[in-house]
Amino acid sequence: MFGNSRALLLDTGATADAAQFPLRATVDSIMTGWLAAHPTPGYGLLVAHTHGHGDHIAGDGQFADRPDTEVVGAGVAAVRAFFGFDDDGVPVRVDLGVRALEAIHTPGHQDAAITLFDPWTGWLLTGDTVCRGRLYVEDMTAFTASLDRMVALARARRVSSVLGSHIEMTARRGRDYPAGTLFQPDEPPLQMSVDQLAEVCAAAHAVASRPGAHVFDHFIIFNGPCRAAFRRQRMRRLANRMRGR
Ligand SMILES: [Zn+2]
After folding, report:
1. From the CA of 126, how far away is ligand 1's center (Å)?
2. Is residue 19 assigned to a domain?
3. pLDDT tens digits, one per residue of 134-185
4. 155 within domain boundaries
């Protein structure tokens, strides 16, 4: 996302190796193209993360020596310090120059998770906290409180789409592709509505005191370790592999 003084790269993917996954080269080429059209001396790059899980931060090292670049640390202390979150949950401005995003701290899936609202596109970027897939909850009390704040923010802004980080559901209601699936010809779109975000919030409150995997039409809430559900995931993945999928 480009502002007038810097761009934001949100998440760096699951692969560190620049030869396999040339994220830095890709970002540099996009920024070079943009800067040719909008010459801006000292134009910066901010690299931040929806949360600190390995599949969202692995490419960070590719930006370590990049000039005019700030990489926000992946841990919760670094995230809180960078954004200046305090405990009142009031959204914090992330100014890219004219384009100012709003960030809130939304722990629960992971303690360093954030949600960003971009008024330019109307996107609410929710990471793994809310997406069309398996919502793994590490801390249910934090998760429901975060969802309450996300719904409040979404209702108070003009949100065009709620965008999470993964698609794991199939087109069939309540049916996911098992973890590890690489070919998903029948997946629904990434974007979700504010009403669907509110559904996630209501569902999380409803299952908060019941450990296990809880299936809903557009998402599945994994409350706690969910060993039986993970066993089923592995069996389904194995069965698909044997069928050549
Ligand atoms: Zn995650």
Report:
1. 11
2. yes
3. 999 999 999 999 999 999 999 999 999 999 999 999 999 999 999 989 899 9
4. yes
